[in-house]
Specification:
Strand content: 15-25%
Protein name: Serine aminopeptidase S33 domain-containing protein
CATH architecture: 3-Layer(aba) Sandwich
InterPro entries: AB_hydrolase_fold, Carboxylesterase_BioH, Hydrolase_4
Order of helices and strands: HEHHEEEHEEHEHEHHH
Domain Serine aminopeptidase S33: 99-231
Structural class: alpha/beta
Distance between the termini: 31 Å
Largest sheet: 8 strands, mixed
Length: 249
């Protein structure tokens, strides 16, 4: 029975995913930086105000806060919050000296960098770490219950956070360290800032750990990009498919 269950989980998921190609005609936009996206606001409009500080009570409901703090074995968030163009970003700033930014990968949080952050502070730098929307304590602020992550959204988030920290704490960004998707965000941000009339200059140093670049994107990852809502259902219903899709990224 156990082997039959395993075989069923491994084969039904890919079979359903392949058959859904013929049922779905709507395709999501490829994850590529766009020249117009940087001005998009929380709900698709321009942001008229610069990023502002926010209280945790503005960001999370009591139930949400209890759930997250219980998962992290904490009594409260250890960082601060800002309201930016797409929602609320939870961040932590420690140390003195030139600013080093730590950008994590999908499915993790800024806690992934706890060890390396301490070492960088001891070396004489300031360290800024933060959670992506939907990760850790950060929260997407739009009206959609299900929203699509894209590279421009994460680049906007980083841009707003740096704008706020550099303005409020008078810090100059020296380097960005990116792991996995964080590496992709680092490069996309510098690409945006290298353009004429960019809002800011490029960050002089990038450190990339296993950045999420593909010579050729795996088939299952391409399927997940094309039919995200269907694949989300598959991942929820079939544990083996969840592992396969996660590994593809």
């Amino acid at each position: 029975m156990f082997l039959q269950k395993i075989k069923k989980e491994f084969f039904i998921g890919p079979l359903l995913a392949l058959s859904s190609i013929f049922l779905y005609r709507k395709r999501v936009k490829a994850i590529e930086p766009s020249s117009s996206h940087s001005s998009r606001g929380t709900c698709g409009t321009s942001m008229s105000l610069p990023p502002q500080s926010a209280r945790v009570t503005e960001v999370l409901t009591p139930d949400e806060l209890t759930t997250i703090t219980t998962c992290w074995d904490e009594t409260e968030p250890k960082g601060k919050f800002i309201k930016d163009r797409h929602g609320f970003t939870h961040y932590s700033l420690n140390g003195e000296g030139p600013l080093v930014v730590l950008s994590h990968g999908l499915g993790t949080s800024m806690k992934a960098f706890d060890g390396i952050a301490d070492a960088i502070v001891k070396a004489g730098y300031s360290v800024l770490s933060y959670d992506y929307y939907g990760h850790g304590y950060s929260k997407y602020g739009g009206e959609k219950v299900i929203f699509e992550y894209d590279l421009d959204m994460f680049t906007d988030q980083l841009e707003d956070l740096l704008s706020y920290v550099e303005r409020e704490d008078i810090k100059e960004t020296y380097a960005i360290v990116g792991h996995s998707t964080g590496g992709l965000v680092c490069v996309a941000a510098n690409q945006r800032w290298s353009r004429d009339r960019a809002a800011r200059g490029i960050v002089p140093k990038l450190v990339l750990f296993s950045p999420a670049f593909y010579a050729k994107k795996p088939l299952i990852a391409r399927l997940a990009d094309s039919i995200p809502h269907f694949m989300s259902c598959i991942m929820t219903a079939i544990p083996a498919a969840r592992v396969a899709i996660s590994d593809a990224y």
